[in-house]
Specification:
Helix content is 86%, strand content 0%. By secondary structure, it is an all-alpha fold.
Length: 187
């Protein structure tokens, strides 16, 4: 099979996988909106935005370099991935230590508690590995692995989020725990 055919097939499967994963989140949103208050839904959206923004900063977004590195380090791509993960994790750990030292200031400024701060940093530590795996799978046209991992992680996080908002008295904390802890554990 030619590279163009592989790329086309992989692109179709990535699109289908993303559509299914995002569709699942979209379909479950009414459940969250029904059970959680508007404030709790807004708080989770705010928390998710903070996590999405800070993961880029605290991990140095090194996974984005993989697209270029595949040309520069063809034979050592695995070494590049490993080095990137070590560098990103070291940088994240440095900021995690600072966050622990200044946790009172950070939690009051951002408006989260210490548990949510620890969950965010645990996610920052492990999410680059999943992102690197996904991107490397795409580069190598291993669409099955990338699609299956994306589907499983989205499904488990979504189902755990729904279950957690029924279990936790604090629905916001249940949503945070249900969404991020499974992603952390799966990485």
């Amino acid at each position: 099979m030619s590279n163009n055919a592989k790329a086309m097939k992989a692109g179709i499967w990535y699109t289908i996988g993303n559509f299914i994963a995002n569709g699942m989140v979209f379909l479950v949103s009414p459940v969250f909106n029904k059970i959680m208050t508007k404030g709790e839904v807004g708080d989770f959206s705010n928390y998710s935005v903070w996590v999405s923004l800070l993961v880029i900063i605290f991990t140095l977004n090194l996974n984005s370099a993989l697209s270029v590195a595949r040309f520069d380090y063809k034979d050592e791509l695995d070494d590049f991935v490993g080095s990137s993960l070590v560098l990103g994790s070291s940088f994240t750990l440095f900021f995690y230590i600072l966050a622990i030292i200044f946790s009172d200031f950070i939690t009051s400024w951002v408006g989260i508690n210490k548990f949510e701060l620890h969950v965010a940093f645990a996610y920052f530590l492990v999410s680059p590995a999943l992102q690197m795996f996904q991107l490397k799978s795409r580069i190598e046209y291993k669409y099955r692995a990338a699609t299956v991992v994306a589907f499983i992680s989205t499904t488990v996080a979504t189902l755990c989020s729904v279950a957690a908002i029924f279990v936790f008295e604090d629905k916001f904390m249940g949503r945070v725990a249900g969404n991020y802890i499974p992603l952390i554990l799966m990485n």
